[in-house]
Specification:
Structural class: alpha/beta
CATH topology of the domain at 78-193 and 221-245 and 295-307: Rossmann fold
Helix content: 25-40%
Mean pLDDT: 88
Strand order of the largest sheet: 6-5-4-7-8-11-10
CATH class of the domain at 78-193 and 221-245 and 295-307: Alpha Beta
Shape: globular
Order of helices and strands: EEEHHEHEHEEHEHHEHEHHE
Low-confidence stretches: none
Number of strands: 11
CATH architecture of the domain at 78-193 and 221-245 and 295-307: 3-Layer(aba) Sandwich
Length: about 325
């Protein structure tokens, strides 16, 4: 029996292939109550380079989960975020009194607040409590979804999206919408998981980052280049980084755990049966094959795209 064709949700290509089954997870947008998608697979699109979860939670389900999540769930300071630090330095380098910044998924407004800009800062945020907190620190939250912003109704010098693309079934559509909301010479900053990193390539569907059910899209270098050329954007900068600062001991420990798991997932299952790994495998045997975390890995990337046209006012 022939396997049905799976379309790439981003570019629509039929030239896709399965990379294997994603292990069962007990986490969805911070909710640890039940397992999700025990039979989900990771697919790769040969045309655009995107890897994607199939089947996946719908956009409405993911958005609803974030909208109702505790507003303290993803609270960060700039000292914890190397991507924020770099983005802030770039924005300030080109800033003027009229500089405008839109942060998509601004949450409590922590990144925008740290910019301390003389211009206007705007946010898109689905979580009502977080949006209220962002407004209290001076962020003009103008939508709960970027799709609500009409093209050319308002244009921005900068659009940022930290840890957003992995939750979108079509990150290409997001880049297209964002490009339409940039002023000529404006910049789009994205930060997300990076499938081209060697730790990701080693593990593929068994990588810890894939097991989070709300993570549905995974970009690589090919995808970055393709969307840049498609929407008349220049890739101005790329920078790989880790979300987690760890000691050398922690790095070595997690590297060894993942090395053993990649060679023999059954060894990982045996360790979980013996009570290691922090998963309740007695209540949910599907978690036996859940991979160890690899938090210190530099498996994230920040990309700065620049729209064609006249230079921005800060230059």
């Amino acid at each position: 029996m022939m396997e049905s064709v799976v379309l790439c949700p981003s570019c629509g290509s039929t030239d896709t292939r399965s990379l294997g089954t994603i292990p069962c997870s007990d986490t969805f947008v911070g909710d640890n109550r039940r397992a999700f998608h025990a039979n989900t697979r990771l697919f790769e699109c040969h045309l655009c380079g995107l890897a994607f979860r199939h089947p996946q939670e719908s956009a409405a389900e993911i958005l609803d989960a974030y909208s109702s999540a505790d507003d303290h769930s993803w609270r960060h300071s700039i000292e914890e975020r190397p991507d924020w630090k770099l983005a802030r330095s770039l924005v300030k380098l080109h800033a003027s009194e009229s500089t405008s910044v839109l942060d998509v998924g601004c949450y409590r407004g922590d990144f925008l607040a740290c910019l301390d800009l003389p211009g206007r800062v705007y946010g898109v945020e689905p979580n009502r409590l977080a949006a209220e907190r962002a407004r209290s620190v001076g962020v003009d939250v103008i939508a709960s979804d970027i799709g609500q912003l009409e093209r050319k109704d308002i244009l921005f010098d900068w659009i940022t999206a930290f840890d957003v693309l992995e939750h979108l079934s079509s990150p290409r559509a997001f880049v297209e919408m964002s490009a339409g909301l940039l002023k000529p010479g404006g910049r789009l900053v994205i930060a997300t998981g990076y499938r081209s990193h060697w730790t990701f390539r080693l593990m593929e569907p068994r990588y810890y980052y894939c097991t989070l059910a709300e993570h549905v899209s995974f970009i690589n270098q090919k995808w970055i280049g393709r969307v840049a050329s498609e929407f008349d954007l220049k890739v101005e900068l790329t920078r790989q980084y880790s979300h987690y600062r760890a000691s050398w001991g922690e790095r070595l420990t997690q590297c060894l755990k993942n090395g053993v798991y990649s060679l023999s997932p059954e060894m990982g299952a045996l360790a979980r049966r013996c009570g290691f790994g922090g998963k309740d495998v007695r209540s949910n045997p599907g978690l036996l094959m859940h991979p160890p975390q690899w938090m210190p890995a530099r498996d994230h990337i920040m990309v700065v795209f620049r729209r064609g046209g006249d230079a921005d006012h800060g230059e």
